[in-house]
Amino acid sequence: MIALLLSVFIFAACSGSNPAGGTSTGGTSNADTKSSIKISYIDVGQGDSALIQVNGKNLLIDAGTNESTNKLISYLDKQNIKKLDYVVATHPHEDHIGGMDTVIKKYDIGEFYAPKKLANTKTFESMMNALKSKNLKINVAKAGVNLDLGKNVKCEMIAPNADNYEDVNNYSAVIKITYGNSKFLFTGDAEKLSEKEILNKNYDISADVLKVGHHGSSSSSSKPFLDKVTPKIAIISCGKNNDYGHPHRETMNELTKRKIQVYRTDVDGTIVLRSDGNKIIKQ
């Protein structure tokens, strides 16, 4: 019922998508992000949320769980966030959009992106109502969309590459950010099917840092995908002693075999990386 009630709003909003992204400015008081890129993989328990700060602009990818909302907002406030130039909900699962309604209500939002997929949940309804209350349109998150994060930055979506999937995880927006010579890949919960589509499209997915798909589940991070990304650093966002056994042993074995440096939010807490365009440093 929720999805039916909201479908008119979401699809009307999606039709106004701007594939080229916007040019809204403002956001962070951290002057040092004008000469570097700062990426925070925020510890939101068994969920996902990442804040990208560069050229005085802010991009938030996902907003964790309902339970972790206060923790997320506290972190954003500590970064002096007033405006989020872009917000991306990679897909409509609670562990990725749990805090989204609060984020939308609290901060000035430039453009909001989400895949064209409805969900019949209270969390999804809350997100949609928050968007509606601020008259924010939904731009469709899909391969080919570019976001404007200013000079020396390329921010492109390379998935989803189809309109319909049986598994909601495969609707996940996959985003590659290039800052100078430093490359970062964000995969949401994209599983092996989406990874295969990305490989078939022959996108350049090489990256120094990979946000590992689906919290380190064995349903993601296929060998061909890892072979093409060839990351030096892997970030896994998951909760301590979670019910899913994330990250799975198979995924950890593949990362270890490739001698990839792994950081985990359940072990390391919030992980902050900074790059001057050449060297990536963990803060």
Please provide a written account of the structure.
- The protein is an alpha/beta fold and 283 residues long.
- The chain has one domain (2-282): Metallo-beta-lactamase, Chain A.
- The chain has 9 helices and 15 strands.
- The chain has helices spanning 2-14, 69-78, 94-97, 100-106, 122-133, 192-200, 223-229, 249-257, 265-268, and strands at 37-41, 50-54, 57-61, 83-88, 108-114, 138-140, 146-147, 153-159, 174-179, 182-186, 209-211, 233-236, 261-264, 271-275, 280-282.
- The strands form 2 sheets. The chain has an 8-stranded mixed β-sheet.
- Helix 6 (192-200) links the parallel strand 10 (182-186) and strand 11 (209-211).
- Helix 1 (2-14) crosses helix 5 and helix 4 packs parallel to helix 5 (122-133).
- The longest helix is centred in the N-terminal third of the chain and has 13 residues, at 2-14.
- It is globular, with a radius of gyration of 17 Å.
- The N and C termini lie far apart (46 Å).
- InterPro entries: ComA-like_MBL (IPR035681), Competence_DNA_uptake (IPR052159), Metallo-B-lactamas (IPR001279), RibonucZ/Hydroxyglut_hydro (IPR036866).
- Keywords: Signal.
- This is MBL fold metallo-hydrolase.
- Residues 1-20 form the signal peptide.
- Pfam families: Lactamase_B.
